[in-house]
Amino acid sequence: xxxxxxxxxxxxxxxxxxxxxxxxxxxxxxxxxxxxxxxxxxxxxxxxxxxxxxxxxxxxxxxxxxxxxxxxxxxxxxxxxxxxxxxxxxxxxxxxxxxxxxxxxxxxxxxxxxxxxxxxxxxxxxxxxxxxxxxxxxxxxxxxxxxxxxxxxxxxxxxxxxxxxxxxxxxxxxxxxxxxxxxxxxxxxxxxxxxxxxxxxxxxxxxxxxxxxxxxxxxxxxxxxxxxxxxxxxxxxxxxxxxxxxxxxxxxxxxxxxxxxxxxxxxxxxxxxxxxxxxxxxxxxxxxxxxxxxxxxxxxxxxxxxxxxxxxxxxxxxxxxxxxxxxxxxxxxxxxxxxxxxxxxxxxxxxxxxxxxxxxxxxxxxxxxxxxxxxxxxxxxxxxxxxxxxxxxxxxxxxxxxxxxxxxxxxxxxxxxxxxxxxxxxxxxxxxxxxxxxxxxxxxxxxxxxxxxxxxxxxxxxxxxxxxxxxxxxxxxxxxxxxxxxxxxxxxxxxxxxxxxxxxxxxxxxxxxxxxxxxxxxxxxxxxxxxxxxxxxxxxxxxxxxxxxxxxxxxxxxxxxxxxxxxxxxxxxxxxxxxxxxxxxxxxxxxxxxxxxxxxxxxxxxxxxxxxxxxxxxxxxxxxxxxxxxxxxxxxxxxxxxxxxxxxxxxxxxxxxxxxxxxxxxxxxxxxxxxxxxxxxxxxxxxxxxxxxxxxxxxxxxxxxxxxxxxxxxxxxxxxxxxxxxxxxxxxxxxxxxxxxxxxxxxxxxxxxxxxxxxxxxxxxxxxxxxxxxxxxxxxxxxxxxxxxxxxxxxxxxxxxxxxxxxxxxxxxxxxxxxxxxxxxxxxxxxxxxxxxxxxxxxxxxxxxxxxxxxxxxxxxxxxxxxxxxxxxxxxxxxxxxxxx
Length: 885
Prior knowledge:
This protein is an alpha/beta fold and 885 residues long.
């Protein structure tokens, strides 16, 4: 039997999870069924054992409740001073989180994990303090009772009749590295309670009457044992996966719970969480936003938000969809995500009408296919709450009455001309008008009023509701049915239009944001675009904060700095620093948190809306991606500049060491010869040595001049001062400056007599001609001619410097203008520093022209550059005769 090959992705994920677990602190929970089982006592015993092993142990918070045997175990342990907080005139002593982080012990003890911190603390709950300590690499011991587990909250309330307000998310328990069950029998616990070892005597009596009943303790003990057993089972399964022991289950379970504005949905969420734990399955909570969502009251919308937040706190994934059919959207998402079980609430009883609308449960069961549907009912004594909806405004009812009255008046005016059927059409039209402009109830009112007005004014006998002809009864019924149907259809269309506009607005906002941040070139443009779009889309005051080189954000916003350091959202509408008036979200990239978006909404309820929260997170995610792209591009440019600077430095050093060595050696040799053997040289020899010194000095001057010109081009310090002047004069000055080097060479100039004036910087163009001529001298035999010519067109003058040398090697036409590139043509090996042609290109480009090189058909190379004829040349001065005339 062959052992199956392990999944590489699973192994990688396991290694990454192990690395992350090693980087953070270890959490050990002392878990019990109720107060008094000995959790704090056991925790202190374990802490004393660690202290004896040499571990740095500090007591953060330990509640002895006056028990002497527990207080004795605190001896020898350092107790961290608590932080005083003023609240409503009372000084409260709370755990000092900052002091613990500054002290950084190896292990800290924090009793009562579910404790609620006093207002003004950094976190609302103590378990959040524990999370921050763990992220800082500090080990934590803490205690917890089973009634404080969030997913078991309603079960404990059903067993004991007491609703526990302080709860801990199940994700905290799942994050714990070790859970130790502290358990005693109900008899022992009750005896401790009577002896005053759990509560003070006056409290113990009340506790025995309410919470600490023997049946309650047995049930709570079973819950604690089952929860611990589930944890042990999870550890066993983790061991099986790490050892490659494959499970026999064919597929993983995935659960989906359907929630709505009904507050009873919280029970469905908790039940789904427990079911998912037993099955070791992923689970999600889904809410479908239909067009009717916009007619819900504020209380119902708040219930949706609370149910979604509860699912998030219990470790579930929340999904908000938009559509007109709730069942269709749920089933589509379930099939697309391989959901195996759907959990719904039991529908409310309905009247047994044959044509009643299909319930959500019926639709899910009908279209579920292979997906199981679980129905969970609420408590029998709890009445199903009525879902609040926004009532139509009074003007809608006024519109209904006014429209029907107008139809009646028009019908009365034309009663002698029109038939009763024609008048009925007026009323149907009024119903349609009301349905398109008002909500469904006003439209239904218009339908009833239309039928009554038609009977009263247009059916004989007039001005009574009596009907002499029974055939009109059918007409009335048809009018009512048609009116009701029209009202419903027009109302539904109106709701769909509102929903479509909302979706279109969100889509357009997201598209506009992605377009602008994609076009942004740097981080400031990205943050400006993101802030502008988020502010417009959410009617909020938005600030995007970027850290300095030390990771510190500007300003004194502690919430934003906490988000920057921990990479999690905080502030308004969250569990971390909820008293803040702003919501802070991290700009999270692959390399870490790049910044923080601070949003201060005008209406604090906007921060709780699930759809707006998801859209906001999408906006921030897009901004983070664009910001990371801009940061990476900036870093790439900086790296390129460093590489280019290093390359330039290396090339300069190499060129200087090579090209300056030759003239310096010549100058040194000639000067030393004159000094040492000056008397032995004749006049001709002395003149030749002096010429050598002069020539080599000029060569060094040209090299240094090229280097300085290159620096001016690279730094943008080159300033072009154009003037209209004849090109012949510039060419003549360049030839005069090279007179000595061109003395034995044939030079041919071909400059037309009608060549126009050109707008140039004469000194710079002169430098271009000198560099091109020197280049021709280097690479051309002494007897080969050098040609200078120019041609003019309407837009530019083209200047050509050609030689009769070996030409340009194929593929070198563009490269010879690069910095430090030296041509490999005969006669020029190793000549020059490789900057002359680069300087020519920079000067010509600064004039708005272009320069290029090509090999001549009859041999040799030709360098051509253009000088644009932009602007209007000055008028020619008048002749003497014309002036006197």
